[in-house]
Amino acid sequence: MSARFPRPELAVVKVGSSSLRGADGRLDRDQVANVAEQVVAARAAGTRVVLVSSGAVAAGMGLLGLERRPVDLPTLQACAAIGQSELIQAYQRVFERADLAAGQVLLTQDVFVRRTRYLHARTSLQRLLDLGAVPIINENDAVATDELSYGDNDHLAALVASMLEANLLVLLSDVAGLHAGDPRRHPDAPVISRVDDVDALDRSVIGGTGSFVGSGGMRTKVESARVAVRSACDAVVADARRPGVLADVLAGDEVGTWFVRSDKRIEARRLWIGFALTVRGRVHVDAGAADALRRRGTSLLAVGVTRASGSFAVGDAVEVIDPDGVVVARGLSNYDVGDIAQVAGRSTKDAAAELGPHFAREVIHRDDLAVLG
Known about the structure:
Number of strands: 13
Strand order of the largest sheet: 3-4-2-1-5-7-8-6
Largest sheet: 8 strands, mixed
Mean pLDDT: 87
Low-confidence stretches: 147-151, 208-216
Distance between the termini: 33 Å
């Protein structure tokens, strides 16, 4: 049987917190060592690896004697601050034995939406790789705000894969892959081996949020795979504790769920708008406007808007919703939510004549719009 894809030159490998925590609530050092040893083997086989590792919060939970993931931000940040050093030391011990240097890089998703920071981060990561080091990335959880509340390293890993133009994103988790049904309710549901069109997936098989240790889940993995494939990068979701899982995935073996890359790569800025920015509200549109966005990638004009919801200002990211409640696109709004209520349904000419020249512009310009489906 032929391989799924050629051996990647560069892979971004993410391992989740539920896969790095032992039964005693502390960091599972043996599992961390196992992951590190697999990265060493991947390097020896010709694939450079960027490791995106969760586990800092889980490690801190164990050290502080907490049995469940905290729900308040200050405690989450404290767990991350305490656990991050233990996590990195556990990896570093293995890499040192293999004469590999490791570079810790703490990021927030803000890096991906501010161009100067984005370019600096990309240059730093590329230089680490050129020097033969293994970058170990984690979200900067000790100072992050929104990201810790609902973020996860699946999303971060996908954005890193896009940033570095990686060939493959590997999401290692506590599941064997995407099942054809919720395995908690349907234990016999088989793993879906291949997904050619992530947008066509039945939402009922994706599932919900993650375990009590992590903040991710199959939904976030599918969303992260969507980012990767639109960056012309293959993605695989597989079981972190399966023996030799990384070697098998990199060899193109049929392990886990493979999300097939798109041949067309979305430009980075549209990817940031579509997936990296925090959405502050919604702009609802009629069927004609939704069709124009999907088919022609036009700007969103006020005449096609029916209403707006949420609390957003000029320049904030918003979702564009069709009459069926489906997200058509995300974009940067030229109006705040109050102004959209005034221009909704009006032509640009009428809005300018009745409300003033300030309203003679698109609701979202096409250059600030990422069509999602």
